[in-house]
Amino acid sequence: MNLGRAFSEIQAGASFFCLHKNKWWQTSRGPMLDAGAFVAGLEYATGVDATVLGKPSPSYFAAALDALDAVPELTWLVTDDVEQDVRGASLFGMRTVLVRTGKFRPETLELAESSPDIVVSSLAQFPALLEEDLTGGWHS
Predict the structure, then answer these.
(1) H or E element: which one contains 96?
(2) What is the pLDDT of residues 41-88, one digit of tens each?
(3) In 1, 2, 3, 77, which residue has its Cα 20 to 30 A from 38's Cα atom?
(4) Using alpha carbons only, how large is the chain's radius of gyration in Å?
(5) Which class does domain 3-52 fall in?
């Protein structure tokens, strides 16, 4: 479906759903526009807010935790996206690890609405931190 058709369908009353509103994503060729840029354009043009089905939607996290039979307070989300992933998981009561890889940018961490519980340079650091937390040695 192209943007013109999506615009027409939404204007005609179609429901407007999106998986996420990420601005960009990291590829091997560098940053690329993500769905959020197009969703924002359609929201602006139609005056209709999209319903987010994925992160950072609470229903997304509820479904994931339900599938895992897990509780938010004991569940960690590991990500390179502070804007959508850390914010959504934090609002849902989950603990968060931000990895300084992929799409991580220091300036986004400084401007973020939510702060991660831990920031690591490599995912390889997380198991030791988790074990320390489980034995009571580390707390956010």
Answers:
(1) strand 95-99
(2) 999 999 999 999 988 899 999 999 999 999 999 999 999 998 889 999
(3) 77
(4) 17
(5) alpha beta
